[in-house]
Design a protein that fits this description.
This protein has 312 residues and is mostly helical. Helix content is 73%, strand content 0%.
Length: 312
């Protein structure tokens, strides 16, 4: 375990440096990105005033640890304030989509594995394998054009109706209406992979002697499936979830961009377009820190789930 945490510490240092350094290599600069499409002609002195002062890596890390994220070049406000506005929307979207996808995939995966080679198993597996080959970009665009633009059932973008004075349940309904399409896109994009993982993990556990012993003891089928088999299949599921976390974050950014959902992903893409380097650095660093932190947490959960004899 100590060696594992050391490797994560090294990875965190490398990711922090890349998060600081790579945005500096973006072509163009803030002044060019903001005024290139306009008729404004800047003098050399005006361009120099707009050019950001880049701190050293150690100064950046020191300020980041203190919670001083600096100012946004594009908006002129503290980056922490921008994150405080965007992060709740990202957490809402990610939790609704990924948590529901995990619950549904877990139940369907367990039931499909117990019906191996049956009609239910073959049908579910065929649908999930087909769905697994469709990227979230395609799903999002199809949902946006068909359910949003063509049928008009859901809003096309944003998280709230602009200039709306709704309150109470009307406000909640407005939030859910805007949440539906991006959450469904993420749900379907994540569902297939998690289903296939759960199904394979359960199939590996089914031949174990304790499963036959549970049946011989007269335990009910639901208890055998979920209290014995599914519980013992959690270890590979937890480990694999850590591997998929980075791709899940990427999917979240893509979906927020498609639906102009005002989360951290949209804030990041807007900062890239405007060459707002301080915002890019902070968001990428925070995402890297979050991914590594969750993986460390999952390592602890996986260690706890391991049989005692294999924890050496």
């Amino acid at each position: 375990m100590a060696r594992t945490f050391l490797s994560y510490a090294i990875a965190l240092g490398v990711m922090a440096y890349l998060s600081y350094g790579l945005p500096l290599w973006l072509p163009g600069d803030f002044a060019t990105a903001m005024y290139a499409s306009s008729d404004v002609v800047l003098s050399l002195e005006e361009e120099a005033r707009l050019a950001p002062v880049t701190p050293s890596f150690l100064a950046y890390v020191s300020a980041f640890v203190r919670g001083d994220f600096g100012l946004s070049l594009a908006y002129g406000v503290p980056i922490g304030a921008l994150l405080a506005e965007a992060l709740p929307w990202t957490l809402l979207l990610g939790f609704c989509a990924y948590f529901s996808a995990f619950v549904v995939a877990f139940i369907l995966g367990v039931e499909s594995a117990f019906r191996r080679a049956g009609k239910v198993d073959r049908g579910l597996s065929a649908v999930m394998v087909s769905l697994d080959g469709v990227p979230e970009l395609v799903l999002g665009v199809v949902f946006l054009l068909f359910f949003g633009a063509h049928l008009g059932w859901f809003p096309l973008q944003g998280a709230l109706t602009p200039y709306s004075d709704k309150s109470g349940m009307a406000h909640v309904g407005d939030v859910l209406a805007h949440l539906c399409l991006p959450a469904t896109t993420l749900f379907l994009a994540s569902l297939s992979g998690q289903f296939l993982l759960v199904r394979v993990s359960v199939l590996h556990v089914l031949p174990a002697p304790f499963v036959a012993s549970a049946h011989l003891r007269g335990l009910g089928p639901w208890r055998v499936r979920y209290a014995y088999v599914a519980l013992n299949a959690l270890l590979p599921i937890v480990v694999r979830f850590g591997f998929r976390l980075a791709s899940m974050v990427t999917s979240l950014i893509v979906v927020e961009t498609i639906f102009a959902y005002p989360g951290v992903g949209s804030l990041l893409m807007d900062a890239v377009a405007k060459r707002d380097v301080p915002v890019i650095q902070v968001i990428v660093t925070l995402l890297s820190l979050g991914v590594i932190g969750v993986n460390v947490l999952l390592e602890g959960v996986a260690f706890w789930l391991k049989p005692k004899g294999s924890r050496a």
